[in-house]
């Protein structure tokens, strides 16, 4: 064997004889049967509290928006129904002011149109 081949052979045998070094966390976990978790409880707690806080704020906002829209819808419906009632009352009052009719026949109470009433009052004052 040559000297170079002998040196290469000796260096290879030396490498094989060295004990293997631990390569990764997997090798360590394999020795224990499970991988050791290095949990940062402060970070987990912080993100949990922050996430829950954001969730509560979002849910509160959605509830407030729902209540606001519900109120606006009810207000709009109320205004529309009142407007219809006022329109009906106004039509009835205008009809009563511009027509002749009986209020109470037993008592002898009648109503006349406003124009007729004004005319009668003017005639009475001229006499």
H-E string: HHHEEH
Report helical residue fraction. over 70%
| Overall geometry | rod-shaped
Work out the strand percent. Answer: 5-15%
Detail the poorly predicted runs: none
Strand order of the largest sheet: 1-2
Tell me which oligomeric state these chains represent. single chain
The total beta strand count reads 2
* Estimated radius of gyration: 50 Å
Strand count, sense and closure of the main sheet? 2 strands, antiparallel
- Spatial gap, N to C terminus: 159 Å
Number of helices: 4
Structural class: mainly alpha
Average pLDDT confidence is 80
Description:
The protein is mainly alpha-helical and 127 residues long. It has four helices and two strands; from the N terminus they run αααββα. It has helices at residues 3-17, 25-32, 41-97, 114-126; strands at 101-104, 109-111. Strands 1-2 form a two-stranded antiparallel ribbon. It is rod-shaped, with a radius of gyration of 50 Å. The mean pLDDT is 80.
Topology:
Blueprint: H1 3-17, H2 25-32, H3 41-97, E1 101-104, E2 109-111, H4 114-126
Antiparallel strand pairs: 1-2
Brief synopsis:
The chain has 127 residues and is mainly α.
């Amino acid at each position: 064997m040559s000297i170079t081949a002998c040196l290469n052979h000796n260096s290879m045998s030396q490498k094989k004889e060295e004990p293997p070094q631990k390569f990764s966390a997997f090798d360590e976990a394999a020795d224990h049967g499970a991988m050791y978790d290095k949990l940062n409880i402060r970070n987990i707690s912080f993100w949990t509290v922050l996430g829950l806080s954001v969730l509560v704020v979002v849910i509160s906002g959605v509830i407030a928006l729902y209540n606001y829209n519900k109120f606006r819808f009810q207000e709009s419906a109320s205004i529309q129904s009142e407007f219809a009632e006022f329109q009906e009352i106004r039509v009835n009052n205008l009809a009563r002011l511009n027509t002749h009719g009986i209020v109470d026949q037993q008592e002898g109470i009648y109503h006349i149109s406003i124009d007729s009433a004004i005319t009668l009052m003017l005639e009475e004052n001229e006499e």
